[in-house]
Amino acid sequence: MRIGELSERTGTPRRLLRYYEEQRLIVADRSANGYRDYDEFYVDRVLQIRGLLEAGLPTRIIKQILPCLETTRTIHVLGATPEMIATLEREHQRMTERIQGLTRNRDAVAGYLATVRGEGRPDPTTPSPRAA
Amino acid sequence: MRIGELSERTGTPRRLLRYYEEQRLIVADRSANGYRDYDEFYVDRVLQIRGLLEAGLPTRIIKQILPCLETTRTIHVLGATPEMIATLEREHQRMTERIQGLTRNRDAVAGYLATVRGEGRPDPTTPSPRAA
DNA sequence: TCGAACCATCACACCTATGTGAAGGTCAAC
DNA sequence: GTTGACCTTCACATAGGTGTGATGGTTCGA
Hints:
2 copies of one chain form a homodimer. Mean pLDDT of chain A is 81; it is low at 120-132. Chain A has helices at 3-10, 14-22, 41-54, 59-65, 82-118; strands at residues 29-30, 36-37. By secondary structure, the first copy, chain A, is mainly alpha-helical. Chain A is flat. Chain A folds into 2 domains: 1-78, Orthogonal Bundle (Multidrug-efflux Transporter Regulator, Chain: A, Domain 2); 81-122. Helix content of chain A is 57%, strand content 3%. The A-B interface holds A 48, 51-52, 54-56, 65, 68-69, 75, 77, 80, 85, 88-89, 91-92, 95-96, 98-99, 101-106, 108-113, 115-117, 119 and B 48, 51-52, 54-56, 65, 68-69, 75, 77, 80, 85, 88-89, 91-92, 95-96, 98-99, 101-106, 108-113, 115-117, 119. Chain A binds a DNA duplex through helix 2.
């Protein structure tokens, strides 16, 4: 498929698809006329990239962890250099910390919401933790 | 305490403390000589801000949710406007999605690590999902 | 009274992920 | 064969979180 279709199917501006390519997160074949030609595969891949970006990882790191996250679930064990494994371990660690921090803060927000919603007479649409 | 101490105790560059103030995430008293004067309280507060930034929230949003997250755990129920509650609900939702996305990807990385570490013979320190 | 170590403001610079538009090639349909 | 919808590259712009340095005031100890 060409860039327009990939853009539409992933909800990603063409500009960004070119950017991801520039950052070497994806690689596009070229048809005779120079147009980018994407395999079906890239729909998932782009979605995954966006998910990781959304999660706060920089393209630099995403580039490193992507090869391990084949959407086909065929894990690429081959070619795992020690440096790469170290990077992954570090990043795994960071992701975990991030998740914890986010969770803590989200729960704090949730607690606050429960309180203000309850404000004496509990809101039936949103059971508060203690009201449950 | 002055900015230097707060900086050191929170591991945050002075520059950023001033930036957070500019963004109105924190407010500093001023002593007679014009120096910023921080209450003990701000150590926690700054740490919290950094946690939220680290989690990917922009200062704009952090500013809104901070008043609900008093570290003293004295929840500020007063002055919760409907707009603010709506923002919080939206943000709570986004945080949850973020956590899910992050978790999914982290687990994928973990799975990969478990595989390459075990490379045939499973690594006892990292139980693989199916081995468990 | 001098120097070191603080503090202040201001301002320019950077990086990353984006937006946006210009200038031009390709191709299918009318 | 021209129009319109695609595609290309190039390039400048913006926003948010930071880095860094210039320039100068305050405080304190030697």
